[in-house]
Amino acid sequence: xxxxxxxLWFDTQGEDAAKFYTSVFPNSRVTDVTRxxxxxxxxxxxALTVExxxxxxxxxxxxxxxxFTFSEAISFQIDCKDQDEVDHYWTKLSEGGEEGPCGWLKDxxxxxxxxxxxxxxxxxxxxxxxxxxxxMAAMMGMKKIDVxxxxxxYDGAG
Length: 158
Description:
By secondary structure, the chain is α/β, with parallel strands linked by helices. It has two domains: 66 residues, Signal recognition particle alu RNA binding heterodimer, srp9/1 (2-Layer Sandwich); 89 residues, 2,3-Dihydroxybiphenyl 1,2-Dioxygenase, domain 1, CATH 3.10.180.10. The protein has five helices and eight strands. The strands form two sheets. A four-stranded mixed β-sheet has the order 1-4-3-2, with helices on one face. A four-stranded mixed β-sheet has the order 5-8-7-6. A hairpin with a 2-residue loop joins strand 3 and strand 4. It is elongated. The model has no long low-confidence stretch (mean pLDDT 97).
């Protein structure tokens, strides 16, 4: 299968976004920046595209103009090993953005993220539907996912 690279359309913030995202995720870096020239249509010197990697996954940020904005129809899911990782990504990515329900947030650039602890799909996938439904009900009442709260619901203690 050919390689696929998500391309994120920004108005003018593509370079700032790439720098921000690479500061949040380990093993990440900006790999290339192309800039508009005198031919436009944006100001000469503004980043046209910014190629970057988040822990090995390639992305492109494109400063294409104000015509298109992000919606929750597209989000990036972060597979967090534990509560510490959930807390890290939630804190960094929600700063200046907007917290949503069930582990969803919008960052300061309007891009949606799902900050998901590995325990969530494990507990939701339990064959005991009563336990799984308690976990679902607990998650529905959360913004940032609380792993201990999910476990209490699973155990029938909360």
